[in-house]
Amino acid sequence: MDNKGWSLKGSLLPLLLLVSELLLGQSVASLPICPTGAVSCQVSLRDLFDRAVILSHYIHNLSSEMFNEFDKRYAQGRGFITKAINSCHTSSLSTPEDKEQAQQIHHEDLLNLILRVLRSWNDPLYHLVTEVRGMQEAPDSILSRAIEIEEQNRRLLEGMEKIVGQVHPGVKENEVYSVWSGLPSLQMADEDTRLFAFYNLLHCLRRDSHKIDNYLKLLKCRIVYDSNC
Amino acid sequence: MKESVASTAVFILLLFLNTSLLNGQSPPGKPEIFKCRSPEKETFTCWWKPGEDGGLPTNYTLMYHKEGETITHECPDYITSGPNSCYFNKKHTSIWTMYIITINATNQMGSSSSDPRYVDVTYIVEPDPPVNLTLELKQPEDKKPYLWMKWYPPTLVDVRSGWLTLQYEIRLKPEKATEWETHFAGQQTQFKILSLYPGHKYLVQVRCKPDHGFWSEWSPESSIQIPNDVTMKDTIVWIFVAVLSAVICLIMVAAVALKGHSMVTCILPPVPGPKIKGFDAHLLEKGKSEELLSALGCQDFPPTSDCEDLLVEFLEVDDSEDQQLMPAHSKHPDQDMKPTPLDPDSDSGRGSCDSPSFLSKKCEEARANPSTCNIPEGIEKPENPQTKVTCTWDAQSTRLEGKIPYFPADGSKSSTWPLPQPPSQHSPRSSYHNIADVCKLAVGTAGASAALLGKTDAHALRSSKTTETGGEEKAAERREVESFHSKTDQGTAWLLPLEKTPLISVKPLDYVEIHKVNKDGALSLLPKHKENSNQPEKPSPPEASKEYAKVSRVMDNNILVLVQDPRAQNLAALEEPAKEAPPSLQENPAEEDLASFTSAPSSCGLQLGGLDYLDPTCFMHSFQ
């Protein structure tokens, strides 16, 4: 499974990059990508954003598929949706709720917000992988996606930190993020409770990954293309 | 008092309900929200389906509350999106928030509520189709023309800020075609089509999809006519070419018609037929292959003797009176019996049926049913180049009577089968073609006894098989011989069933004792009912001398003339206890006769490649 994830990852990212280049239909006049081990290397902001958007888009796709699969397989007729109200651990982070709010917020703040959300998901994703593995007859599709999401999330975080370093360097904010305390629920013996915990986690992941993707695309169009995507 | 009021109220209520029922009025049925959609992720609309209205004007209200709030709101706009809809404008729309929406239907009779519907605007985005689709046929010089199309994103969608990212898809087809040709265009808003059919009218459509949403509807069709690319100049050229070729064809036809055959011959010379020197096709037609092939200089077709190589050697039969020859082997064992003179100097292949196992196998088969025996292969007797013989068990070919095949007492030995034919025999002499025939002959003789004899022959023949079933056959043999014995008189000759392989045998073979020896020295044999204690079964190499008994001939249809084969002792024998049979012979009073016989084979026998072959003439002399 890991091998598949790794190989997927290894082949996917360059492919995604290529695809994104084609899709944008613009010649990307940018510095070459930094080889590993290079000491001083400047990747253009455009490239960084392109890569970040690709990653965030991919992560949301995975989350969406994972949620749909879980919902179809385990959550039918259990009425989980009625209970998954206001139950995400990241709701404490004040994120914009519509386009106007998102456009009013300053891009630095928005970037920091993205970072916070990403950091808030490090822990839950790690435990998600562990717990899904331990789940009885955990389907391959869910587990593989969970592993992939965890990996990509980490890379996106690194990329975002690079972007922040370029957009407003020098300011290193304290690592603020929401603490996730849903682990005991994931490990409950009662099947219904445990399944709802999974459902809720995947539901929140789907939502937050969409938020990140949306914010990044807004930022990209705003910063790189000057609001003229 | 109160009770009376209450009861009155109930009564009135019941009356009222009854009245309404009688009128066909009822509270409204349950409505249902069937679709919610956002065209640009900034507003959204929900539509519902009313239930039965119960015959009364029904009022529908949409109530909702948002995730994280406790206040319930009513739909802000029932109009904009049409009947039975609720439009949430930008102010009332929050993304990444769950809406819990319910419809209430109320009429005079009562009300009902729909099931709550959970809506998150994030996941219900379905934009309008792209707009302003334009088609243009571009014809660069010296290049093929292509179709260039351009469109714009739907007006409501905000792509410039990146709020939504759209991907497009176009499809086109010639007007008359049934299948659309679809192309994915990515995020670009233009597209080129290069492969076009000239002279056709094309229809084109485009649609779009947000990055995490649903495909829009197809835009209205745009059409364009592709002009024919055949110019006037080309047409003239083609017409000229066509006329020219028509003229040439006419000329050719005329020439052919006039000149006729000679022209054709000139143009298309006749194809020479195949010719083989000396080959006369007529002969072939008549089917006289021999003549035909002789004309070709081919000989021996179809091959007759080549098969001998495969089939080892033949048994030759000489049906001259005093010659007891084995039937020559041939592949066509039935009626086609050709007597072949005994050739003492050459290996006439006698012994092809010599292998007792071989023979016995065959005779066994023959006994089972008249059928063709296969050539058993791989009969290994190192010292004897065994030859194999096709054994056909053709009942019809039974001619010889009283012919009992010569069978070796020692399984290891394969011997020829001189078929003794008593001079008194006037039965038709016919050559045998194989052991089966011989067997048959034996069977055919003298009716039942002969038949039995034949059967026992089969057993006898089988005796020297190296690998054979043991006990059962022996038992069968025993039974047969016994029955034989019971049926026949003393005139019947007894066969000496030979030992079967002891390797797996359980019971010994039947032994025969020499019942008597007549003046001629013929041994009449009796089956041994008891195991010969004197000859325990020994799977050891054959002992010296006298163990091996050969049937030299059969006399009078039922007398088996046995001779000893002194060569038996020399053979590195099988482990078969076939020696038991010979020892039984030893005990017999005819031993002295045997002894006299002993000498005979040595002088008469011709050892050919390990095959024992006895010249019957010798025996005749010795007997006479």
UniProtKB/TrEMBL annotation, chain A:
CDD domains: prolactin_like (cd10288). One of its GO terms (molecular function) is metal ion binding. It is found in: Secreted. Zn(2+) binds at residues 57, 213. PROSITE patterns: SOMATOTROPIN_1, SOMATOTROPIN_2. Its main location: secreted. Keywords: Disulfide bond, Hormone, Lactation, Metal-binding, Secreted, Signal, Zinc. One of its GO terms (cellular component) is extracellular space. Residues 1-29 form the signal peptide. One of its GO terms (biological process) is female pregnancy. Interacts with PRLR. Belongs to the somatotropin/prolactin family. This is Prolactin. It comes from Neomonachus schauinslandi (Hawaiian monk seal).
From TrEMBL, chain B:
Residues 27-128, 129-229 form the Fibronectin type-III domain. PANTHER family: CYTOKINE RECEPTOR, PROLACTIN RECEPTOR. GO terms for molecular function: cytokine binding; metal ion binding; peptide hormone binding; prolactin receptor activity. Keywords: Disulfide bond, Glycoprotein, Membrane, Metal-binding, Receptor, Repeat, Signal, Transmembrane, Transmembrane helix, Zinc. The box 1 motif is required for JAK interaction and/or activation. This is Prolactin receptor. Residues 325-361, 409-431, 461-488, 523-548, 574-599 are annotated as: Disordered. It comes from Neomonachus schauinslandi. SMART domains: FN3. The chain crosses the membrane at residues 236-258. GO terms for biological process: positive regulation of cell population proliferation.
